[in-house]
Amino acid sequence: MIEFSGVSKYYDQDIILKDVSVSIEKAEMVFLTGPSGAGKTTLLKLIYCAERPDEGHIVVAGWDIRKLKQRTIPFLRRNLGIVFQDFRLLRNKTVFENVALALRIHDMHPTEIKEDVFEVLKDVKLSHKANTYPAHLSGGEQQRIVIARAMVTKPTVLLADEPTGNLDAETSATIMNLFRDINTRGTTVLIATHNKSLFQGTGCRILYLRENQIEKELIG
Ligand SMILES: Nc1ncnc2c1ncn2[C@@H]1O[C@H](COP(=O)(O)OP(=O)(O)OP(=O)(O)O)[C@@H](O)[C@H]1O
Ligand SMILES: [Mg+2]
Questions:
Q1: Ligand 2 centroid to 115 CA: how many Å?
Q2: Residue 25 is part of which domain span?
C-alpha cells in the first residue's frame, strides 16, 4: 500500500532522510517513532505529497508519486485520511460542516452526506456536537472531529502525526481505539509518535527512525 525505495530527502543542504526503503502492506497498522527532528513528519509529508523526494521511488495506493503532477495531488489525497496538526478544523463552520466538507467534493447527495457524517460522528461519540463550532470544543473533542473528518471518506490509507499530542491518557486511549477500529475495517494506518505508550503492547510493527534512516524495526 505504501512503498519507499531508496528515498532521500534534503532541506537545503541538510539531509533528513537517507536512502530509506520500507514497505507497508494493505490493512497494516504501523507506528513511526524516533527522536524529535528525526524526520517522522517529513516521511509522512512525502506520502501525501506535501514534500517531494530528492531521490528514490514512492508508491502510495498505486500512485507513483514521482509521476504525479501538482494538479493530480488532490486525486491522490482523496484516498488518504490525514490527521495532522496543520490540517485544522475551520473555525467558521460547525462540526457537521467540517466533516461534511470532505464529502462535498465527492459529488454526493445531501441525504447521503448527512447519513455518512452522522455515522462517523457516532463513531467518535460526538453526534450531539454536530451543530457546535470548533472553538466550543475541548482539545480532545476537536481531535476526534479531525479523525472523523479523515474517516468519513473511507480512505484506503490513514496518516496521523502525533494524533494524541496534548491529550490526557484516557482521551488518547479512546483515539487509539478509534484507529484500531478503522484498521480492522481494512484501512492501512500509519501513526507517527514519540509516545511509546501508544504502541507498547499493540503487536504492531514499529519503525524507529534515527540519523536519517529507519535504524530498526520492532514489534510493539
Ligand atoms: N520545511 C522545512 N524546511 C527546512 N527544514 C525543515 C523543514 N521541515 C522540517 N525541517 C527539518 O527537518 C528535520 C526533520 O523534521 P521533522 O519535522 O520531519 O521531524 P520529526 O521527527 O517529525 O520531529 P518531531 O518529533 O519534533 O515532530 C528537522 O531538523 C527540521 O528542522
Ligand atoms: Mg513531527
A1: 34
A2: 1-79+157-164+183-220
Per-residue pLDDT of the chain (220 residues; tens, 9 = 90+): 999 999 999 999 999 999 999 999 999 999 999 999 999 999 999 999 999 999 999 999 999 998 899 999 998 998 999 998 777 899 999 999 999 998 987 778 999 999 999 999 998 899 999 999 999 999 889 989 999 999 999 899 999 999 988 788 888 888 899 899 999 999 999 999 999 999 999 999 999 999 999 999 999 8
> Which three three-digit cell numbers place residue 9?
530527502
Would you list the DSSP string of 12-67? TTEEEEEEEEEEE-TT-EEEEE-STTSSHHHHHHHHTTSS--SEEEEEETTEEGGG
Q: Is there a single domain that holds both residue 48 and residue 116?
A: no
How far apart, in whole angstroms, are the C-alpha atoms of residue 71 and residue 74?
7
Q: Specify if 130 maps to a domain.
A: yes
Is the shortest distance between the CB of 125 and ligand 1 below 6 Å?
Answer: no
Between the CA of 171 and the centroid of ligand 1 the distance, in Å, is: 27
CA of 6 to the centre of ligand 2 (A): 21
Q: Which residue has the cell 460542516?
A: 97
> Is 97 domain-assigned?
yes
Cα distance between residue 198 and residue 219, in whole Å:
13
